[in-house]
Amino acid sequence: MHESAFQIFVNALLANNFVLAMFLGLCPFLGVSGKLDTAFPMGVATTFVMLVASLCAYGLNLLLSAFHLEFLRLISYIVIIASSVQLVEMVLKRYSPTLFRALGIYLPLITTNCAVLGVALFQTAREYDFIQSVTFSVGGGAGFTLALVLMASVRERLQLSNVPDLAQGTALSLMLAGILSLSFMGFAGLGG
Amino acid sequence: MNPSTAKTWDEFMEGVWRQNPTFVMILGMCPTLAVTVSVVNALSMGVSTALVLIASCGLVSMMRNVTPKEVRIAVYIVIIATFVTVVDYAIQAISLALYDALGAFIQLIVVNCIILGRAEAHAAKNPPLPAMINAAGMGLGFTIGLLSLGVVREILGAGTLFGVSLFGANFQPWVIMVLPPGGFFVLGAWLLFFSWLERRKLRRRQGSHAEATQNA
């Protein structure tokens, strides 16, 4: 089945949203979504890492297939992701020290974000070509950012409302995520 | 029970109850929510994660004196990725249907924060045997967490348990429970239940304390 680039993008962004439909990247989704100011940069940084990791993974997969070393795929992907996170860290530190400090510990933690490894693994499993891989990773990153921003906005508003003590904390976040995910189900079938 | 057995037992139970990875530490959420649509999936995911956890904690602990501090995280990740590859190929050989059902989530065990967290917080500081016992407890705790979600979601969402129909043909399944939102709702409900239990325990203790002071 050949999917057009646009279909892949819309699918990854809305219909199969990485966070709300495929359960990838839940740790930062629950951890960093407290404030809108940090949620958005976090989403952008993750998107960038996803794009770099997806490009490298595409090249690496060609190389591994050529030498019949498929069993090394997982190990080499994770090494690539760790190095691209390092790259993003160095670039940010050089050009935007303020943002670098604001993101703090969450920046190195992008390495263990399953959405990033998920992009690399899914594009290999679905045998996407170069253009498809790029749109898939950008769409997935944009979807991750969208979910993070939506969640942060809702949680900021909820700080002012009267929530029962029992439901404070993670239980409340999960219920919210459930409702968001329910509304994202309305996009099902959009990507064709 | 002699003191050393008691300590070992304590080490083991830490992961099962007091520091349960799913309900207390809220770690490893992605596989928890993604694969728990049926009990069989949940069980196999829990067992494979536990195997990777035990094996990598053992190896990390054996290598703890020769690992340079600066590159330890990279070393841990490569160790974990190696064992995940082994488990991945093993499941593929045992049951292809199961492999398809779990999808990419077997390979995504690599980035499960429970394993890296245990390697860094426990295995890197303890000898192999206690580290593996602790890892086994954590693995069991994670499996229990997955199962408690899987059981609820399969019964409500499909009306079955282990694939066996429970309510007969007239049962109208609550389909939303096996879809993504159901995962969030069920886990949220479990957390609510546990915080209610905690609160009730606290109130009872305060109640009996107040009674004691009145009697005095």
Low-confidence parts of chain A lasting 5 or more residues at pLDDT below 50?
none
Q: What is the number of domains of chain B?
A: 1
Strand runs of chain A, count:
0
* Largest sheet: number of strands, sense, barrel closure of chain A: none
Secondary-structure class of chain A:
mainly alpha
Average of the residue pLDDT scores of chain A: 85
Proportion of residues in β-strands of chain A: under 5%
Give me the Rg of chain B, rounded. Answer: 20 Å
Describe it for me?
- The complex is a heterodimer of chains A (192) and B (216).
- Chain A is mostly helical.
- Chain A has one domain (5-186).
- Chain A contains eight helices and no strands.
- Chain A has helices spanning 5-15, 26-31, 36-66, 73-95, 97-103, 114-125, 130-158, 170-184.
- Chain B has eight helices and two strands; from the N terminus they run H-H-H-H-H-H-H-E-E-H.
- A two-stranded antiparallel ribbon of chain B has the order 1-2.
- Chain B has one domain (3-165, 173-215).
- Classes of the chains: A mainly alpha (192), B mainly alpha (216).
- The A-B interface holds A 20-27, 30, 71, 74-75, 78-79, 82, 111-114, 117-118, 121-122, 125, 166-167, 169-172, 174-175, 177-179, 181-182, 185 and B 26-27, 29-31, 33-34, 74, 77-78, 81-82, 84-85, 88-89, 104, 107-108, 110-113, 116, 176, 179-185, 187-188, 191-192, 195-196, 199.
Blueprint (SSEs and pairs):
The complex is a heterodimer of chains A (192) and B (216).
Chain A: H1 5-15, H2 26-31, H3 36-66, H4 73-95, H5 97-103, H6 114-125, H7 130-158, H8 170-184
Helix pairs in contact in A: 1-7, 3-4, 3-6, 3-7, 4-5, 4-6, 6-7, 7-8
Chain B: H1 3-18, H2 29-34, H3 39-62, H4 72-94, H5 96-102, H6 113-123, H7 128-158, E1 160-161, E2 164-165, H8 180-215
Antiparallel strand pairs in B: 1-2
Helix pairs in contact in B: 1-7, 3-4, 3-6, 3-7, 4-6, 6-7
